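ARF interacting protein 1 structure dump, as promised
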Amino acid sequence: MDQESPKNSAAEIPVTSNGEVDDSHEHNFNRDLKRSLPSGLGLSETQITSHGFDSTKEGVIEAGAFQGSPAPPLPSVMSPSRVAASRLAQQGSDLIVPAGGQRTQTKSGPVILADEIKNPAMEKLELVRKWSLNTYKCTRQIISEKLGRGSRTVDLELEAQIDILRDNKKKYENILKLAQTLSTQLFQMVHTQRQLGDAFADLSLKSLELHEEFGYNADTQKLLAKNGETLLGAINFFIASVNTLVNKTIEDTLMTVKQYESARIEYDAYRTDLEELNLGPRDANTLPKIEQSQHLFQAHKEKYDKMRNDVSIKLKFLEENKVKVLHNQLVLFHNAIAAYFAGNQKQLEQTLKQFHIKLKSPGVDAPSWLEEQ
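structure tokens r here:
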């Protein structure tokens, strides 16, 4: 019974005939294992078994595709669980190949193809990048033009028309300002004349000795106030028409001119960029940049040509509309002023009828929507 004691696995150490520890088996095992793993040995093909103490094979590692020297006896071999082995096996097969052909390894979760779904943050970042690059090029072009180092595209005929338009706008604004001042002063004078006529009329009733004199002055002031209101209506109509011409029609054309000037700066900026690239060397690195710059230059050239045509058309129609509007308004202003200071009430009223001007009675509010119905 004492001689049949259980074997201790830690005591089973093979020795040679010289009494030294035989480690050739362990060396051969490590060498063969290193050779077999890179050549495609999957962890799912490996099976580790542990037998009892009485078995003839102790601590054997079996591999499907591996043919090597027998393994040396190991002290104690533990078999991993099936769940852990399956997880290790899934790591080798969890490879997803997208449309581009590149292999990407994912741990878990759904499969996402980068070519099909666009990231909004990346799109905004790309827009900011393009805007920054365009702003830099335009700013550099403006600074170069102001310093006299850069060249700019000039359409002499169109630039002359734009300068005339801006100069005329300033003059029309001055006329509009003076006409508004005249309207304000005339309104105050008409208001004073109306009050003075009422005062004369009141005194003509209370002063029997000066009844006729006060009555004449009262009628005269009231007539002047009435003619002044008619003239005031003509001046206000003149102001409204000139204001529409200056602050709407001309301003709209000048907004198109500003867009044309911005397109011209962008066109010159990308033209200069393309010229600099063409002067440099041509190799595999610069040719894609030159092609991209040529494409951008062509796009901005088309935009510049379109805006130049739009400005030319608007300037043509603006000139025709300006002549027509100012002709009618200047005739109205002249006839009204001449009839007022000549005291010709009939001609003054006829002038307003000619231009379809309706005067509002003093102290009468506009009719409500119910009364209009």
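The CA atoms of residues 228 and 242 lie 21 Å apart.
lmk if u need the other ones
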